[in-house]
Amino acid sequence: MKHLPLNRAFTLLEPGPVLLITTHDGTRSNIMTLTWSMVLDFSASFAITTGPWNYSYTALTKTKECVISLPTVDMIDTVVGIGTCSGEDTDKFDKFALTPLKAAHVRAPLIKECLANIECRLVDRIDRHNILILEGLEAYFDTSRKEQRTLHAVGDGTFIVDGRKIDRKEMMQSKLPEGL
C-alpha cells in the first residue's frame, strides 16, 4: 500500500449522495449543493454539515426548515454550478432553470427536476462540528423519472455514480429491525 496524506483520508469515506438543499429566508428561496450528509437511524432523521460560510446557513438556522432534494447524474453540471456560485447575488432557480414546487410543511420549495425531495425541520445543532440535525416531515419520490442514478462526491472535484444494484433483501430480512 502507498501512503495517503491524512488530510486526504476523508476522500475514502464518501458519506452519501450529493444533495441540493433549498431554503427560504422569508423573502426568497435559495439552493445550495451539499456533499456531506448522514442518515441517523431507521427513521427520517438526517445530519448535514454546513456553516456560517455558506449563504443558505443563515436562512436554514433562522427559519429552522429546508428541503433535501436528491439530484441525479444527468444534473451534474447543475449541481456543480449551484455549488460554485452564491445565492447572495444569484437566483439559482432562474440561473439553472429549476422549477420550485410548493412544499406542504415548510416555506422552502421542492425541486421538480430532482428524483426525490424531503421536507425537513431543524431540530438540533452540534456547533463544534458544524452539524445540523434535521427531522423529515414529508417525502416525495418521482417514479416516472427515467434517470435514477445518484452522484457521490469524492471531495476533490471528482464524483462516483451509482451503478448496478445487487439484491440481498431476502438474505437480510431476518436481520432488519421489526417493521422495516
UniProtKB/TrEMBL annotation:
Entry's Gene Ontology molecular function annotations: FMN binding; oxidoreductase activity, acting on the CH-NH group of donors, NAD or NADP as acceptor
Keywords: Flavoprotein
Cofactors demanded by this protein: FMN
Pfam families, per the entry: Flavin_Reduct
Keyword Flavoprotein: yes
Keyword Membrane: no
Coiled coil: none
Residue ranges constituting the Flavin reductase like domain according to the UniProt record: 12-153
Superkingdom of origin organism: Bacteria
Family: Belongs to the flavoredoxin family.
Protein name: Flavin reductase
Biological classification of the source: Bacteria, Pseudomonadati, Pseudomonadota, Alphaproteobacteria, Acetobacterales
